[in-house]
């Protein structure tokens, strides 16, 4: 199975795509390692991660079919 990865903002410039499907990984830490190997520019950038439209801040299990979004820093006030 596969995971749907979506990129937003400046992350689309780094990855040169707005989304991609990759082989499933068991948890977020392993997925981030794979994504940073595929897109080395991600390693030096801060971003948030959501799994199925919920922000996550720590390693979490992920399952086939989950939607993962990488979100650039938000500005606001």
Can you summarize this structure?
22% of the residues lie in helices and 30% in strands.
Description:
- Strands 2-1-5-3-4 form a five-stranded mixed β-sheet.
- It has 77 residues and is of the alpha+beta class.
- The termini are far apart.
- The mean pLDDT is 93.
Helix % is 10-25%
Give the radius of gyration: 12 Å
Oligomerization category of the chains in this entry: single chain
Strand content: 25-35%
Counting helices, strands and paired strands, the structural category is alpha+beta
Mean pLDDT: 93
State the low-pLDDT regions, or none: none
Overall tally of structural domains:
1
* CATH fourth-tier homologous superfamily: Beta-grasp domain
Query: Helical element count?
Result: 2
String of helices and strands: EHEHEEE
Number of strands: 5
The CATH topology assignment is Ubiquitin-like (UB roll)
Q: What distance separates the N and C termini?
A: 41 Å
Key structural traits:
single chain; 77 residues; Ubiquitin-like (UB roll); 5 strands
Write the layout of secondary structure elements.
Layout: E1 2-7, H1 10-15, E2 19-23, H2 28-38, E3 48-51, E4 54-56, E5 67-71
